[in-house]
Write a structure and sequence with these properties.
Strand order of the largest sheet of chain A: 5-2-1-6-7-8
Radius of gyration of chain A: 20 Å
Oligomer: homodimer
């Protein structure tokens, strides 16, 4: 019997944890759901039974959990992940809090599964936009080496939580019904707009989201020499992030080899038949666990250049699915 | 008295020609509106009077026009632009038909106005996504030299004409009202989606739109040595294209110098105060004639690297405004 805690169970990623766990139908697992005092007491249906959400407290982990899946924001993770870890539980944390801590492995199971076993009680789940990128890039990096990456993202509102989702839904409704809508999350309307602003701005002019893509890609691929830059943009899409990825490889490649390599890569679906209008789309990826790669073509503007278009559901593979996959990896062992 | 013909007057760009001409209120101009047989006979209000749209025919230009603004698609331009030019009229053509013809100047008035006077009866108006990019890039190219450009675009549906606009509008309505909508223009839903597919696919895996950005940027900037690659994407926005532009300069630059250079550039508005949530937005640019530049920041992943976010109304500066500005340039003379 494994005991699993879900922290932040009522949030968007928390609910996706439950959805993915229900689909996986793990044998011999027992679940306890936690949330803030505000959401405690609410009921959630999961795996054929109804759970009452408990309030997260300092003693919540005293009863002994094997795994805790956290998605309740960085400040909750900062306080409670060490408490849980000290009680012998392995925390798989979806916040940005621990990701760049040298003591904490940052894991994408298709890319660096071995790192998960080096944990000291906390494993970080990477940023959504980074996860899908490295699933597509890791096989290419292993074979040809990556010199430089230019990321431009097209990120969905589900990454901004329930209020982000509502801003788009209310914006669409206001447009259709000819009324006004008030924003709850974004500083500007997201319906009928693209916002080059995800997370807070840093001193260097980049957003935290852009900096995460740079730092986390290097950490997951175990290569601090990869030159990376990013522009991250929120677009009026509910689910699934799309990414325009321009890559410069260290060694020459054949396009057909890259395609074959990706076709044989775990977690990747190559959707690349443009003449028949087949390429990765948010509408295809939403609700699924795979990373879709297409628009593969040689970039003639630089030596060994490659362009690709990468799409995945940011709440599933970009958060909940990846965390559950890490848990399964730990259960299975090396 | 100048005589001006508007060809394709009932289309989306045609109507924008009228809107811009009305705002400019040119003295001593007389207008004749043309469209296909299907739209001929319809009435358009413009400059305080009502015009009956005439059918475009081989003898339409016999009566002697000074300028003809064409936006009726490449096949109409191919047939009728030479006919008009042979009658002594200067055609300013918004289609892709003549752009790469070495005999035809491709003009953005802020960038290469002198080229307009080298015309042999036809001047091409560049592709919308290229116009806004070169307005932002030309001052930088003049001062520092551009080595390489990586474009990723976020293009609005108005670039796909009335049917593209309706696909987004109907998609939003279907979402809000919980019904189905049928697509008229795009191969996949554009509401709640990003389509990495603008114009037809070429043998090399690029779309024509991507190839246009490469070829037209070089032609307008008079520099075949600039290395360029592009990924062009349709997003669920009605008006104004956004662009993530990554540039590698030939010579070192200071970020503050670039900002000042752009602030002093014709047709450019620098919107770049991220700490106060100020950056270029489609919602700000729509309906205006300027090119908005922001998110200016050093790209540390390459020598002399620079990232920028460039937004402009694709139907105004990206099409109608640019064409009218070319006409004004011709009227004014060198």
């Amino acid at each position: 019997m494994k005991r699993i805690a879900i922290v932040g169970a009522t949030g968007m990623v928390g609910r996706a944890f439950l959805e993915v766990l229900e689909e996986q139908n793990l044998p011999d697992c027992e679940y306890t759901l936690f949330a803030s005092a505000k959401s405690a007491g609410s009921e959630l249906d999961f795996g054929g039974r109804t759970y009452t959400v408990k309030e997260l407290k300092e003693d919540s982990f005293d009863s002994g959990f094997d795994i805790a899946l956290f998605s309740a924001g960085a400040s909750i993770s900062k306080t409670f992940a060490p408490i849980a870890a000290a009680r012998g539980c392995v925390v798989i944390d979806n916040s940005s809090c621990w990701r760049m801590d040298p003591e904490v492995p940052l894991v994408v199971p298709e890319v660096n599964p071995e790192d998960a076993f080096e944990n000291k009680g906390i494993i970080a789940n990477p940023n959504c936009s980074t996860i899908q990128a490295v699933v597509a890039l890791a096989p290419i990096h292993r074979k040809y080496g990556i010199k430089r990456i230019v990321y431009s993202t097209y990120q969905s509102v589900s990454g901004a939580g329930v209020k982000g989702w509502q801003d788009l839904e209310n914006g669409a409704r206001a447009f259709v019904e000819g009324c006004e809508s008030e924003l709850q999350k974004f500083p500007h309307p997201i319906f009928n707009n693209c916002l080059p602003h995800i997370d807070a701005f840093l001193e260097n002019g980049y957003t935290k989201e852009e900096q995460k893509m740079v730092d986390e890609t290097r950490k997951i691929l175990h290569d601090q020499n990869i030159a990376i830059t990013a522009t991250t943009v929120r677009v009026p899409v509910f689910s699934a992030h799309s990414e325009s990825i321009n890559v410069e490889l260290l060694r020459p490649y054949k396009l057909e080899e890259v395609r074959e390599l990706l076709q044989n890569s775990e977690g990747v679906i190559v959707a690349d038949d443009p003449q028949n209008n087949i390429y990765p789309l948010a509408s295809t990826a939403a609700g699924t666990d795979e990373v879709y790669v297409g628009r593969l073509r040689r970039d003639e503007s630089v030596e060994n250049g490659l362009n690709m278009w990468v799409v995945s559901d940011n709440i599933r593979k970009g958060a909940a699915t990846n965390a559950v996959q890490i848990a399964l990896l730990l259960f299975k062992g090396r």
